[in-house]
């Protein structure tokens, strides 16, 4: 009898090339990740989330509570590691198909990346060949194609391996990432049986027959999906269900922060001792805040929010370039892109509404109403009023069901404050202000007449006398009895409605200016200090539960409104299905200019002036900033803790013009020699300069000497 050697014995080069290619592709990190330094890699910082074995009965069983705490109170569910997903089940049966599911932000895609990279490095010896597919890519094609052609089209170096598929000697794992993108039909009438890897069929039919075990029955398959799509695969085709439960243990959160914030080069500094000390201090403060069971611990249940916390801390503590390379609104926009890029709320719904657009319309409305009423916690009744009050069709109800199942916990979480356990808060406080800003800037907050004006002005630009088109669109927002009046207006005043829609932009500009200069916020900390406190906590005695809370502060709301209008953020939001036109951004800036500049001349308190400068940085509009800054002749930032980031913002914003500054007051601002170097070009232009009561040691003498001896120095009086 002849001995049949494993196929990999004959084809080691092809599989090694495949491993090398996959490793390079799946190890590649998006731009947002590269800010952690050149040494950052998936292997160096990955922390596996908790994975719990589940069952179809548990998935289909109506949950009395959609909260994160409900997930944590399920001790009976067995924890299983990624490497053991294909172990035999409780009945001793071999598992071939695994469904790995989790809500948005639990880390499904990152987990798959790690799985593939581990196999490439020889850490998954159970499989000789791993073939990953993106269900998003598969959903874009309906042209019949054979499985073998599909594989070689994506992985050309496997063309010599593909003919061996179907051999019992080759242990193959197919990875199907993002099954919710595919609308699968397991009925024989909907998808015919196919057992031939050479037969061309639609990509969705390939997936169905792989899961049926009719095509390559010996292959193992791992499917990732959101909870709402789990039931699309009949239970008889699934050997194991496993739910990604995030970082349910605060020790996992601490480990994640330790790895992320301790990366060499994270702060861009060469001083190793200084870098290490500051990073260790950040990790220690963050750990103490997590141990207090603060709201941030509930947020960091989701690995995605751990990423946001680290990125925000990186921005607050390690920004030293002028101008700063990041904006806070840019971080939040990028965060949403990482989690929602290309995501459709429900692939089975004909509208194919983008998930982010749906969030902006619904959660954004809740966020905005909360900001306007100075409210951060919401009851179930509040949620129903926001999400369900306008539900009219079956499609809208289905969309809401998918949202509650897949996305709700990403934005809203139970309040941990005693006495408020049955209310919900935004997972990260600043996210409420960001979504409220997005809701307003997108123009979702409109009166009926503004809605009509928008619709009609768009029609006038596209059609002339097509009454049928006019009727079909306008009838959505006006009763039929008003249509004759409407057509008369169209004939008499064709520009009336375009002017009406323009008033919406004036309203946005006025809202932004009013919120930016609210007098009741004048004696709060500046927004950067507020963000820092929300993440790292406030050292000192805890407030008694019965003690009245301070008034809610929403000073980031107008700053985010400006930041969202920046060109870069609008481009990213466009990818997410949230379109803000160039003309709209221009008109909002134009309408806002007079109000903002007039208010800035009133003489703002130091912390509010810092917020105003930060707003101008976030807005990323050089012409607007230059005009606004020319009116600032006296700049009083006394007692504002000038971190490296604030120094960079001040240098960047004031540096947008060359005008002389009559007086710059930096008394008691925690300045050091490094701060002086950052601010040097600005200090040169100041006539009266206050630097007293700062941490300026002997090393600052050189900086001050160089300043005073500079041939362009305008300083007449130095204190």
Automatic annotation (TrEMBL):
Keyword list, A-Z: ATP-binding, Leucine-rich repeat, Nucleotide-binding, Repeat
Taxonomy of the source species: Eukaryota, Metazoa, Chordata, Craniata, Vertebrata
PROSITE patterns reported in the protein's UniProt record: NACHT (PS50837)
Domain of life: Eukaryota
Transmembrane segments: none
Protein name stated in the entry: NLR family member X1
Domain NACHT: 96-229
Pfam families the record matches: NACHT
An MF annotation (GO) of this entry: ATP binding
Source organism: Coturnix japonica (Japanese quail)
SUPFAM superfamilies reported in the protein's UniProt record: P-loop containing nucleoside triphosphate hydrolases, RNI-like
Keyword Cell membrane tagged: no
């Amino acid at each position: 009898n002849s001995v049949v050697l494993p196929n990999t014995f004959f084809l080691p080069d092809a599989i090694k090339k495949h491993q090398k290619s996959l490793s390079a592709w799946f190890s590649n990190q998006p731009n947002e990740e590269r800010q952690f330094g050149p040494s950052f890699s998936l292997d160096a910082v990955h922390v596996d989330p908790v994975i719990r074995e589940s069952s179809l009965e548990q998935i289909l069983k109506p949950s009395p509570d959609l909260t994160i705490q409900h997930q944590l109170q399920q001790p009976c569910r067995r924890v299983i590691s990624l490497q053991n997903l294909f172990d035999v089940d409780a009945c001793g049966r071999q598992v071939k198909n695994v469904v790995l599911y989790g809500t948005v932000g639990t880390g499904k895609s990152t987990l798959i990346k790690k799985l593939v990279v581990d196999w490439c490095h020889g850490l998954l010896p159970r499989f000789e060949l791993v073939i990953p597919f993106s269900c998003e890519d598969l959903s874009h094609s309906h042209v019949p194609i054979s499985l073998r052609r599909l594989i070689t089209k994506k992985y050309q170096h496997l063309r010599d391996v593909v003919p061996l598929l179907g051999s019992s000697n080759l242990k193959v794992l197919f990875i199907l990432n993002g099954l919710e993108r595919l609308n699968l039909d397991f009925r024989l009438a909907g998808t015919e049986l196919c057992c031939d890897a050479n037969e061309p069929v639609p990509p969705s039919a390939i997936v169905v027959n792989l899961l049926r075990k009719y095509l390559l029955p010996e292959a193992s398959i791992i499917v990732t999906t959101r909870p709402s799509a789990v039931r699309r695969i009949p239970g008889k085709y699934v050997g194991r269900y496993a739910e990604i439960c995030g970082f349910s243990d605060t020790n996992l959160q601490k480990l994640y922060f330790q790895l992320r914030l301790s990366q060499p080069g994270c702060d861009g500094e060469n001083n190793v001792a200084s870098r290490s000390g500051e990073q260790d201090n950040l990790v220690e403060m963050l750990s103490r805040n997590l141990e207090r069971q603060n709201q941030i611990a509930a947020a960091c249940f989701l690995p995605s929010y751990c990423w946001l916390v680290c990125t925000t801390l990186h921005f607050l503590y390690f920004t030293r370039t002028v101008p700063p390379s990041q904006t806070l609104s840019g971080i939040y926009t990028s965060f949403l892109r990482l989690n929602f890029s290309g995501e459709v709320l429900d692939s089975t719904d004909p509208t194919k509404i983008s998930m982010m657009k749906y969030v902006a319309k619904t959660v954004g409305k809740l966020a905005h109403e909360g900001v306007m009423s100075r409210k951060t916690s919401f009851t179930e009744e509040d949620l129903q009023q926001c999400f369900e009050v306008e539900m009219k069709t079956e499609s809208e109800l289905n969309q809401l069901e998918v949202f509650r199942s897949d996305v709700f916990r990403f934005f809203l979480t139970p309040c941990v404050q005693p006495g408020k356990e049955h209310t919900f808060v935004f997972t990260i406080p600043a996210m409420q202000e960001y979504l409220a800003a997005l809701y307003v800037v997108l123009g979702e907050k409109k009166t009926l007449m503004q809605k009509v004006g928008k619709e009609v002005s768009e029609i006038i630009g596209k059609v002339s006398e097509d009454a049928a088109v006019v009727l079909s669109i306008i009838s959505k927002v006006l009763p039929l009895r008003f249509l004759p009046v409407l057509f008369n207006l169209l004939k008499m005043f064709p520009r009336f409605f375009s002017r009406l829609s323009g008033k919406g932009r004036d309203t946005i500009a006025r809202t932004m200016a009013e919120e930016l200069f609210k007098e009741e916020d004048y004696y709060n900390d500046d927004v950067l200090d507020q963000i820092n406190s929300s993440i790292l906590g406030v050292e000192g005695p805890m407030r008694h539960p019965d003690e009245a809370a301070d008034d809610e502060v929403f000073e980031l709301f107008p700053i985010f409104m400006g930041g969202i209008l920046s060109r870069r953020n609008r481009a990213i939001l466009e990818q997410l299905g949230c379109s803000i036109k160039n003309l709209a951004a221009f008109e909002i800036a134009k309408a806002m200019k007079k109000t903002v500049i007039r208010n800035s001349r009133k003489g703002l308190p130091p912390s509010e002036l810092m917020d105003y400068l930060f707003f101008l940085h976030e807005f990323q509009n050089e012409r607007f900033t230059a005009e606004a800054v020319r009116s600032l002749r006296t700049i009083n930032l006394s007692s504002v803790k000038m971190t490296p980031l604030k120094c960079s913002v001040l240098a960047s914003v004031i540096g947008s013009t060359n005008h002389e500054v009559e007086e710059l007051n930096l008394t008691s601002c925690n300045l050091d020699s490094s701060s002086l170097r950052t601010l040097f070009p600005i200090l040169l232009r100041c006539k009266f300069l206050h630097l007293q009561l700062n941490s300026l040691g002997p090393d600052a003498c050189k900086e001050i000497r160089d300043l005073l001896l500079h041939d362009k120095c305008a300083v007449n009086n130095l204190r």
